[in-house]
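pinned: reference chain
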Amino acid sequence: MAMQNIVIVNTGCANISSVKFAVERLGVKVTVSDNTEIIQGADKVFLPGVGSANAAMASIEHKHLVTCIQGLTQPVLGICLGMQLMVEKSAESLQDFTPCLNLIPGEVKRMQVGELRLPHMGWNTVTPLDSLSLFKGIPNGTYFYFVHSFAVAISQYTLASCQYGMAFSAALHKDNFYGVQFHPERSSDAGAQLLQNFIEL
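pinned: its structure tokens
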């Protein structure tokens, strides 16, 4: 595989080191940056996120990264909150919807799981709807590691689904933008395979 320029966007709201280590374990060099020129020059871009959508969007806006991310044409992978930031808006703030990056149609809403506890935390099976891109070589029913209380509904942009008291999007895809609700960097061999698949897109 040719040397690639892989950049993790330093959103200011993510546990970037675990994503960085997971990608480096694949033998790939990684740059962490919030410099728009460095991000735009990447072959592949990771958009990680942890915490709340409104804090994350505030940080991204403060770093003047919104139009940079929206204008990227290379493959971009949002992870956990990073995936949620890719849709139109998030209901995570109790007062109001938080406008997000609007890269993929959809909304982030609190999960309705009946008697099950939130956050949805731990290993759960994923059903890929496309085995050609991110889920190449990953069988239906493979376990990935989740930690979240909010989710995006199933839509035409769902790349993989998951079930926890309700069906929700475990992965999204539109154009060059991909997102996963789970943590591939904490999902053992399956997560490593998915990261490898993304890098090879």
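why pinned: The helical segments are 16-24, 36-40, 53-62, 66-70, 81-84, 188-199. The chain has six helices and 13 strands.
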